[in-house]
Amino acid sequence: MAEVSKYVTLISNDGFEFVVLRDAVLISPVIKSMIDPKSEDPAPVPFSLSSHLG
């Protein structure tokens, strides 16, 4: 079995990439359901992440 990365990369609608600790993003039920292989709902969840940089 492949080792799961300690980090997750979130990409905003405007192309910014955020590398975040997996433990931190798993706090969000929405993101958890998208990346957790044990999730009961395997279908992708549309998710909009906008950065407010610039």
From TrEMBL:
Signal peptide interval: none
What InterPro entries does this protein map onto?
A: SKP1/BTB/POZ_sf, Skp1_comp_POZ
What GO terms describe the biological role, i.e. biological process, of this protein?
ubiquitin-dependent protein catabolic process
Top-level lineage group: Eukaryota
Every SKP1 component POZ domain range: 7-46
Q: What is this protein called?
A: SKP1 component POZ domain-containing protein
